[in-house]
Structure formats: structure tokens, C-alpha cells
Design goal:
single chain, alpha+beta, BirA Bifunctional Protein, domain 2, four-stranded antiparallel sheet, two-stranded antiparallel sheet, globular
């Protein structure tokens, strides 16, 4: 099942170029690794709302000229050093317009799961983004984009809904797990959506078509009413 904007986002002829940087090559393997690490650390019970994993996504623009393998290897190393927790998986996807890497982290520190604390607030996220740019992006010749306005609530909800459907169609993860992974992106899911190759402009075109249709229908109804007043046959 694919949501709006996902058709044609994956070039299946290039899917074989995707590769694993860290961790197992399957969702079951990743889950088994997480369970093994938690068991070894003595984690026996978890709260119902415990954060089971954090995801970090690094993306390159389609017209980049960077060494892909070097860039993503350096990026994964930065994630390992910056967060200081086990990397469950790091997978590079090259079958979309924007090459990107998904890094899945187990928020395990000592014998505790500290997902919320590890993620931090907006200031922590901004500091990490700045450090990533200085440590990795700048080294590869990229320019830090200027701040942009926060997307509207409608755009955020559409983006999360589409991303959820896309991840559900591509992975063996359940809806609840995907919801947890998407939660950190709730305030601004657009970078993740762009990394996944989803074109939200399709949603805008669909909205425009809807408005035009409703406008036309309204005009048609008024014409019928006007004709009825003048004794004309309805259209």
C-alpha cells in the first residue's frame, strides 16, 4: 500500500545498491539484537510508554558529488560518538533521488532505557544539528540551510501519515513501533519526509483540485437556483 506522493519514489533497479553500515540486515535481526543488549544490561521490565529506539536520518541532495561510502561512514561514526549508545542498525538507501542513511539507536545507558532524556529538547536537537554540520557537513563542502518556518499542523499531520504508511509498506515493523520512531519528528517531519523521497507537492495539487471542484459545484448550484427563479428548466 502506498500513500499519496510515494508512487515512483523508489527506483527498483537501484534497490540492490542499498547497503548496511552497521547491524543486522533484517528487522527481526535488529529486534533480536536490541533484546540481547537489554538482557545483558539487566533491563527486565519497561514502562508502557518507554522509548524503545531513536532514529537519526542523514540525507544528501540529489546533485551531490560527495563520496557516498565515506560520507555515510563518517556520519554513522558521528552518531555513535554524539549519542554514546548502541547502534542497532545503520542502512543506506540509494534507490531514491536523495541518498540517505537511517540509523536506529537503542537508548540504553548502563542498565537504564533513557530515550526521552537522550533525545532531549529543542535546544539539544539544535546543538546536535550544528555540531553535525561543523563535524561532517562542512568537511564535505555543504552549506547549512537557513532557518525555515515551522510547517502548519495540517502539513505536519499529512507528512506523518504518509511517512507512517510508507514505512509500514517497506518494513516488517508494526504500526505501534513506527509510531514511536516517528514521534521525534512530530514537530517538523519534513526533513524525514524529504529523506524518504516523498513529494508533498502532490498533496498540495490534490488540495487545489478539491478547491476547484467545490468552487465549480457551488457555481453550478447557483446557476440552477437562478434558473429556477426565472422559470427555466434546471441544468
Amino acid at each position: 500500500m502506498k500513500g499519496a506522493g510515494e508512487q515512483g519514489s523508489i527506483d527498483t533497479a537501484r534497490t540492490s545498491l542499498n547497503y548496511i553500515v552497521r547491524g543486522p540486515g533484517s528487522a527481526l535481526g535488529v529486534c533480536a539484537l536490541a533484546q540481547e543488549l537489554m538482557s545483558t544490561a539487566g533491563v527486565k521490565t519497561l514502562r508502557k510508554d518507554a522509548v524503545m529506539a531513536l532514529e537519526v536520518v542523514m540525507s544528501l541532495p540529489p546533485n551531490h558529488d560527495a563520496d557516498l561510502h565515506a560520507y555515510f561512514e563518517d556520519s554513522v561514526q558521528w552518531v555513535e560518538q554524539s549519542f554514546g549508545v548502541p547502534v542497532l542498525s545503520a542502512a543506506v538507501h540509494l534507490d531514491q533521488a536523495a541518498p540517505h542513511c537511517h540509523v536506529l539507536l537503542l537508548p540504553l545507558v548502563g542498565s537504564r532505557m533513557v530515550g526521552s532524556d537522550l533525545m532531549g529538547g529543542r535546544a539539544t536537537l539544535a546543538a546536535r544539528q550544528e555540531d553535525y554540520f561543523k563535524s561532517i557537513g562542512k568537511r564535505y563542502g555543504f552549506v547549512r540551510p537557513s532557518a525555515r518556518k515551522r510547517p502548519s499542523k495540517t502539513v505536519r499531520e499529512d507528512a506523518l501519515r504518509i511517512a507512517h504508511a510508507l514505512l509500514q509498506s517497506r518494513t516488517n515493523l508494526g504500526g505501534e513501533v513506527i509510531g514511536v520512531l516517528l514521534a521525534p519528528h512530530a514537530s517538523d517531519p519534513l526533513p524525514l519526509v524529504e529523506a524518504l523521497g516523498i513529494d508533498l507537492s502532490i498533496r498540495k495539487r490534490m488540495a487545489g483540485d478539491f478547491v476547484r471542484t467545490m468552487t465549480a459545484n457551488s457555481a453550478h448550484r447557483k446557476a440552477k437556483q437562478l434558473g429556477a427563479r426565472h422559470g427555466k428548466a434546471p441544468l
